[in-house]
Write a structure and sequence with these properties.
Chain lengths: 509, 119
C-alpha cells in the first residue's frame, strides 16, 4: 500500500467511525416507538428537513452518473437538474398535502396512506410490494456506487466488495438504532462535506486543467459542439421529447417516492415543507459542477474506459491524498445517506402494512388500530427486520449479480410513477375506488413492462413511464365511473363527523 | 370543501398546531398564486423547443446551458413568490384534502368505524 493509499484509507476509516457515532448519538433521549423510528415523531424543523432532503437528492449518482453522462452524452444530463427543480414546485403542494393527511390519521408510509384512504388493506399491500420491487435495486445502485467511490479514493487498496459490505454495515447500524433521525444527522455531516468539496472542484478543476471556466466553455463550443445541443453525443435517442417527458414524469414521481415521503412525514409542520420547497432548489445549482468536471475529462482523459469515474479520475490524478480522501468521503456518504433512508422506507412499508396487520382502517382486517405500546414495538421490530433483509438482498445482489438488479433501477421512476394515482390523486378525487386504483396500477405496470421488454422505451422519444401512466389513469377513471354507475349515487354524507379537527400534532411524545 | 371549520385544531400540546385551511379567516381564501408553480415546468420544457442551440452565447456559456442555468435560478424565486402570495403559507395552515371532506362517500367500502381524529 502506497503512502497516499494509506492516508486515504485511514481518513476513510475515521469518517466511517464518525458516521456511526453521529448516527447513534442522534437517538439519545428520544422516544423508542415506531413513529420516532420511521418519521422522527413528526418533529423535524426546517433545517433538518432541508438537510435530510438534500441528502436524498444528492446521491452517489451525482458524483458518478452525473459526471459520466456529461462525459458520454452531454446535455441530456440536464434532465436531472430540470426534474429535481420542477419536482420542488410540485412538492410545494404535494408535501404539505401528504403531511396533512398522514398526520391527521397517524399514518407513516404511502402504503399506510393508501390503506387508510381506500379502507383496503389489499391495496396498501399492493402499494408496499410495488414500491419495494422498484426500491431494492436503488439500494443496490447506491451500494455499488459506494464501492466504486471507495475503491477510487483509496487508489484501489480497498476492494469493491469490501467497500460494499462496509457501506451496508455502516448504514444499517445507524438506521436500525436511530431511524430517520440518524439519517438526518449523518446528512448534516455529509452536506457540509459535499458543499465544500463541490465548491472547491468548481474553482480548482477548470483552473488546473484549463485556463478557467471561460476557456472550458470556449473549448467545448469549438471542439465538442455535439455535446451542447439535443440529443447530445451518441446518446441513443435522448432527444428533446425524451427530456420533456422524463422531466415531467420524474418531477411528479419524486414527490411520492417512499423515501421523499418519509422526509415529508417527519416534518414538524406543513410550512416546514413549504419553506423547504423554496430553499432546496438552490441546492441543485451544485449539480452543475460534477457535470462540468465530467465534461472537462473529455479534454484531459478522452479515452476513459468507465465514464462513471470521470470525476474521481480527475480528482485522484490532480490532488494530494488527504483532499482526495475528503472528496471521497463526501461521495461515500452520498451513497450511505440515501441507502439508509431507502432501507428504512422499505422496513416501514412492510412492518406496518404487510406484516403488522395494517392500520385498522380496513373493516375486513383483524387489527382494530389500537395504539398499544406492545403493538407499536412489534411493528417496529418487524420493520427493523425487513430493513435488514432488504439491505441484505441488495448487498447480495451487488456482490453476486452486479448487473441484473441494476437494470431494474433504470425503471424505478417509471414503476413508482404508477403509484401516483393511488397515493396522490386519490387524496383529491374522493370517488376513486380501491378496485379502480388497483386495476389502474396493474395495467400501468403491465404497459410499462411491455414497452421496456420489447425495446420500445423510450417510444419515439417519449418516456415509457408516461405512456404507462396515461393507461393507468384511463383505467382508473373508467373503472371508477363504471362502478359508480353500477352502485347508483352515493349518499351525500359528511356532516358532523368530518375529521377536520386536530391534526394529531403532538402525537407520540 | 368542508363546510364547517369547527374547532380549528388549536388544542395541540405544542405551540398552537396548524389550522385547517378552511378555518382561515376571510371568505374561503383563494390560492391563485399556486399557478406560478407551473413556471419551472414551462421553463424547462421550453428548453429543447426554443433554446436548443449553442449561439447566442451568454457570457461565453452556450445558449441551451445558459437557459437551463437561468431556469434553475429563476425557479426558486418563482416558488418563493408563489409562497409569499399563498394564504396557506402565510397562516401556516394545513393543506386542504378533498378526500377528507365528507369522508363517508370515499372509497367503495362503508367505513363505520370511529374516524374523528382520535382513536
Amino acid at each position: 500500500m502506497s503512502s497516499s493509499a494509506a492516508i486515504a484509507t485511514t481518513i476513510f476509516a475515521l469518517a466511517m467511525v464518525a458516521t456511526i457515532v453521529v448516527g447513534l448519538l442522534s437517538a439519545r433521549g428520544r422516544d423508542k416507538g415506531m413513529t420516532e423510528w420511521s418519521v422522527s415523531s413528526r418533529g423535524l424543523g426546517v433545517l433538518f428537513i432541508w438537510l435530510l432532503m438534500a441528502g436524498e437528492t444528492y446521491t452517489s449518482f451525482s458524483f458518478l452518473g452525473t459526471a459520466g453522462w456529461s462525459f458520454s452524452f452531454g446535455v441530456p444530463i440536464l434532465y436531472l437538474v430540470a426534474y429535481l427543480t420542477t419536482g420542488f414546485a410540485v412538492a410545494y403542494v404535494v408535501g404539505p398535502a401528504l403531511w396533512t393527511y398522514a398526520s391527521r390519521h397517524r399514518l407513516i408510509s404511502i402504503a399506510d396512506m393508501a390503506e387508510h384512504r381506500f379502507r383496503s388493506r389489499p391495496l396498501g399491500i399492493l402499494v408496499a410490494v410495488v414500491a419495494t420491487v422498484f426500491i431494492v435495486p436503488y439500494i443496490q445502485v447506491q451500494i455499488q456506487g459506494m464501492g466504486v467511490v471507495v475503491n477510487a479514493m483509496t487508489y484501489g487498496s480497498i476492494d469493491l466488495r469490501v467497500a460494499a459490505v462496509i457501506s451496508f454495515v455502516v448504514a444499517e447500524v445507524f438506521i436500525l438504532v436511530s431511524g430517520l433521525r440518524g439519517s438526518a444527522w449523518v446528512s448534516a455531516m455529509k452536506d457540509v462535506l459535499v458543499i465544500a468539496a463541490v465548491a472547491f472542484l468548481a474553482v480548482y478543476v477548470p483552473m488546473h486543467y484549463l485556463d478557467g471556466v471561460g476557456d472550458f466553455m470556449h473549448r467545448m463550443v469549438t471542439e465538442k459542439p455535439e455535446w451542447l445541443t439535443f440529443p447530445g453525443h451518441e446518446s441513443g435517442g435522448l432527444d428533446g421529447t425524451w427530456f420533456i417527458s422524463t422531466l415531467l414524469l420524474n418531477a411528479v414521481t419524486i414527490t411520492i417516492f417512499p423515501t421523499t415521503v418519509a422526509g415529508y412525514l417527519s416534518a414538524k409542520s406543513p410550512n416546514a415543507l413549504r419553506r423547504n420547497a423554496l430553499l432546496l432548489p438552490w441546492y441543485q445549482l451544485l449539480l452543475f459542477i460534477p457535470m462540468m468536471v465530467g465534461a472537462t475529462a473529455l479534454f484531459v482523459m478522452p479515452n476513459l474506459k468507465n465514464p462513471d469515474l470521470a470525476l474521481f479520475s480527475l480528482v485522484t490524478d490532480s490532488l494530494p491524498a488527504p483532499l482526495v480522501a475528503v472528496i471521497g468521503v463526501a461521495g461515500a456518504l452520498s451513497a450511505i445517506v440515501p441507502m439508509s433512508v431507502f432501507m428504512l422506507a422499505i422496513g416501514t412499508l412492510w412492518g406496518k402494512t404487510l406484516l403488522g396487520g395494517g392500520n385498522g382502517a380496513d373493516p375486513r382486517s383483524r387489527r382494530t388500530g389500537s395504539g398499544a405500546p406492545a403493538d407499536d414495538m412489534r411493528t417496529k421490530r418487524l420493520s427493523q427486520l425487513v430493513c435488514v433483509l432488504a439491505g441484505l438482498l441488495a448487498l447480495g445482489g451487488s456482490l453476486f449479480f452486479p448487473n441484473t438488479l441494476v437494470q431494474l433501477s433504470v425503471l424505478s421512476y417509471e414503476g413508482l410513477a404508477q403509484l401516483v394515482p393511488a397515493v396522490l390523486l386519490a387524496l383529491y378525487w374522493r370517488r376513486m375506488s380501491a378496485v379502480a386504483a388497483g386495476s389502474g396500477m396493474l395495467v400501468g405496470l403491465a404497459v410499462m413492462t411491455a414497452l421496456w421488454s420489447t425495446g420500445n422505451d423510450p417510444w419515439n422519444g417519449v418516456n415509457g413511464g408516461i405512456i404507462a401512466l396515461a393507461a393507468n389513469l384511463a383505467v382508473t377513471v373508467a373503472v371508477t365511473m363504471l362502478r359508480k354507475d353500477a352502485e347508483g349515487r352515493g349518499s351525500p354524507g359528511g356532516d358532523a363527523k368530518t375529521p377536520s379537527a386536530a391534526p394529531a400534532s403532538g402525537e407520540a411524545s | 370543501m368542508s363546510d364547517n371549520p369547527s374547532q380549528g385544531g388549536r388544542e395541540g400540546p405544542q405551540e398552537s398546531g396548524p389550522l385547517p385551511f378552511d378555518a382561515l379567516p376571510g371568505n374561503r381564501p383563494r390560492r391563485r398564486s399556486l399557478w406560478l408553480l407551473l413556471v419551472p415546468a414551462v421553463l424547462y420544457c421550453a428548453a429543447p423547443l426554443v433554446a436548443d442551440s449553442i449561439e447566442p452565447r451568454i457570457l461565453g456559456v452556450p445558449f441551451l446551458l445558459a437557459w437551463i442555468i437561468a431556469a434553475t435560478v429563476v425557479s426558486p424565486l418563482v416558488i418563493w413568490a408563489a409562497a409569499r402570495l399563498d394564504p396557506a403559507y402565510r397562516a401556516g395552515a394545513l393543506e386542504p384534502i378533498p378526500a377528507d371532506d365528507g369522508r363517508d362517500v370515499a372509497g367503495s367500502e362503508q367505513t363505520g368505524t370511529a374516524e374523528g381524529g382520535a382513536r
